[in-house]
Amino acid sequence: METLTAIVTAINDFVWGPPMLVLILGTGLFLQARLKLMPVLRIGTGFRMIWKGRRPSAGAAGEISPYAALMTALAATVGIGNIAGVATAIAIGGPGALFWMWMTALVGMATKYAEVLLAVHFRETDDRGEQTGGPMYAIKNGLGPRWRWLGGAFAVFGGIAGFGIGNMVQSNSIAEVMNASFGVSPWISGIVMAVLTGFVLLGGVKRIGAVAEKLVPFMCVGYVAVSLVVLGLYADRIPEAFALILHHAFNPTAATGGFVGAGVLMAMRYGVARGIFSNEAGLGTAGIAQAAGRTRHAAESGLIGMMGTFIDTLIVCTMTGLVLIVTGAWHSGLKGAVLSSSAFETALPGFGANFLAVAIVVFAYTTILGWAYYGEKCWAYLVGTVSETPYRLAWTVFVLVGAVTQLDFVWLVSDTLNAFMAFPNLVSLVLLSPVVVKVTRDYWARRDVPAAIVPPVVSTLR
Questions:
Q1: Which of 114, 215, 318, 436 has the most CB atoms around it within 10 Å of its CB?
Q2: Distances in Å between the alpha carbon of 192 and those of 188, 232, 356, 391, 418?
Q3: What pLDDT was estimated at residue 32?
Q4: Eight-class DSSP state of 147
Q5: What pLDDT was estimated at residue 396?
Q6: Residue 321 CB partners (closer than 8 Å, separation 6+)
Q7: Is residue 380 within 8 Å of 387, Cβ to Cβ?
Q8: pLDDT at residue 325 in the model
Q9: What DSSP designation does 94 have?
Q10: 279 and 73 in contact (C-beta within 8 Å)?
Q11: Biggest alpha carbon distance in the chain?
Q12: Using CA atoms, how far apart are residues 325 and 98, in angstroms rounded to an integer?
């Protein structure tokens, strides 16, 4: 087992090393250039589309509202990476890592826009009459039969990885937090989670969407609100925090307290890696959820979908990072969720640690629901909708297994398979970028927007 772990570790270090990070960032920059920065310039439009998407247009194809589709994607995206991932990035790379997370998100908005647009543009109607899509369908229908194997590879990697990173790892995190913070047995946590998960999954994407559109806004707003309370208590340190972030993004961080110091490359590497881990831009998963949304145009889904990256990283992750810096916890020598817990408890004694424990539980549970849908659609692509009921039962059982099992190796394998998912998706994004530009031009040409308020970028896209 030690030999196998060493082999998988070496593979993981390679696939998530500089080449993959460069590939993901490079693809995002390429798409931003092809779209002439439209995703960044249209952030306001994205927020308006989210609000409008609560009530989809009559007659539009899809199973759930665009808003519910975004919340389903955010359910899978906003998770322990926003708490533990940000803490690890700053604990190893210093405050400058947060800056590189921001840059990753801005670049990733174009990636997320493109992968959602393609997922909707090339989606199909399955044998149950439901809309289904994602990178596998974009590859099959966009690149043709010769590339179908690449779509199959994405589905295989996604279908397997989901049981680890989207299921057992999350339920294990919940069980550990509940045991450490409230003394709840992992078996009890596992059984409760399995029952709740099974109930939601039996209702399919409509029930997942209904739960997500209520739970996700609640957890995001609640987390941001408590973070703002902490920042209010340390308001005088906020300017210094931003100065530290900007300075150490381009200059080495000296050792201080329990922090051993970090170079610029370390800040960049961990900021980019944890940013990608948090917002999943480049993995292609968000397109699977957004393809179920009712919409009249794929570009509208893309505009809504790209806001998931903005909300996840530029809002939620930023809150975590600023709390770590203003409280001074970042140079304590702690890492991961323990570091975040220490920061909140420092600011809000007797409440902060318990609040963060509850936040981790809610974030991780919504990730289980979101990834359940991703995995289901991957297996349906491979073997048909006949797989749905067995898959949902298996997913529910693995929630319990994850809660009571040691999962270091499972985490390692799942993380590696995530990288394998990213490669087919990134290849398809580059090869299908002309489609992204064409569909985007078509959308802006059809929108009834007075020319005076259309940004110059739109005119250049037309």
A1: 114
A2: 6, 36, 20, 19, 28
A3: 95
A4: G
A5: 95
A6: 86, 90, 95, 98, 101, 245
A7: yes
A8: 95
A9: -
A10: no
A11: 65
A12: 10
In sequence order, what are the residues at sequence separation of 6 or more whose Cβ sits closer than 8 angstroms to the Cβ of residue 106? 40, 314
pLDDT of residue 18: 79
Nearest of 435, 431, 388 to residue 150 by alpha carbon: 431
**Dihedrals φ, ψ of 143, to 5°?**
-100, -15
Burial status of residue 462 (CB atoms within 10 A of its CB: 0-12, 13-18, 19 or more): exposed
CB atoms within 10 A of CB 227: 22
pLDDT of residue 56: 63
The low-confidence residues of the chain, meaning pLDDT below 70, are: 1, 56-62, 260, 448-462
Which helix (H) or strand (E) is 239 found in, with range?
helix 238-250
0.85 exceeded by pTM: yes
Do 285 and 112 form a contact (C-beta atoms < 8 A)?
no
> In whole angstroms, what is the distance from residue 75 CA to residue 283 CA?
15
Quote the CA–CA distance of 206 and 211 in Å, as a whole number.
9
Q: How far apart are the first and last CA of the chain?
A: 57
Half-sphere exposure of 267 (CA within 13 A, CB side): 25
Assess contact for 212 and 370: CB atoms under 8 A: yes
Strand pairing report for 124-125 and 131-132: antiparallel
pLDDT the model gives residue 355? 93
Per-residue pLDDT, 69? 84
Q: CA-to-CA distance for 431 and 434, rounded, in angstroms? A: 8
> Of 94, 419, 433, whose CA–CA distance to 280 is shortest?
419
pLDDT at position 12 is 80
Q: Tell me 125's DSSP state.
A: E
pLDDT of the residue at 61: 63
- Distance between CA atoms of 134 and 401, rounded to whole angstroms? 28
Distances (CA, A) of 401 to 164, 220, 406, 432, 455: 11, 28, 10, 40, 52
**Which residues are within 8 A (CB) of 197 and not within 5 positions of it... i.e. 6 or more apart?**
368, 369, 372, 395, 396, 399
Q: Where are the beta strands (DSSP E) in 114-273?
A: 124-125, 131-132
Cα–Cα distance for residue pair 231/315, rounded to 1 Å: 14
- What is residue 312's DSSP assignment? I
Task: Mention every residue, 6+ apart, whose C-beta is less than 8 A from residue 305.
Answer: 70, 73, 112, 113, 115, 116, 117, 286, 287, 290
Q: Which of 113, 103, 25, 101 is nearest to 319 (CA)?
A: 101
